[in-house]
Amino acid sequence: GESVGLHLPTLSVQEGDNSIINCAYSNSASDYFIWYKQESGKGPQFIIDIRSNMDKRQGQRVTVLLNKTVKHLSLQIAATQPGDSAVYFCAENIWGGADGLTFGKGTHLIIQP
Amino acid sequence: DVKVTQSSRYLVKRTGEKVFLECVQDMDHENMFWYRQDPGLGLRLIYFSYDVKMKEKGDIPEGYSVSREKKERFSLILESASTNQTSMYLCASSRLQGEGTGELFFGEGSRLTVL
Q1: Which fold has domain B4-114?
Q2: Where residue B41 falls among pLDDT bands split at 50, 70, 90?
């Protein structure tokens, strides 16, 4: 089976609310994690990453949290906007690894007006 | 801006046809990848390449082959297309192991329909 997965296929939130998208991984050797955003008709785009020596990393309106104890990753989006509507994927790798990322199945974030 | 370009956004082919999907990157990356993306299955790795002339099987290589004659170009070939190869195909590139984070840079995708 895959080593990275997401808890929910679809998440619906009100515009302006905060969104939390969750991800579980099973490979204890993974030490690098990325969140990608994929808008309809486009390829995945990098949002934020985190290495396993960190628990939290913040970007512009996004925060990634990593809980290594339970192998859980989350993406928090503050003040969700219509442009945030997309499919979000978590992915894992060994730091500096070059044999490709392992992706979860994705969560479709839907923004309600 | 870094760029991964896939030659065709949309293709429609018939069963049994040979299909070429081309991908070019302008970042001088050593590694290149082909994924397919299907609803409910996420992204699955077909093949990847560490260097010119080199290729490695991913998780679902059956029915596909690849070619990397130049560093910037990675082609995916369907020798005899079948309907179950109808999918979105994504090309990606990354830096050499140990020289980068492992982040993949993706193209816009090629949506292939096999009739």
Answers
A1: Immunoglobulin-like (2.60.40)
A2: confident
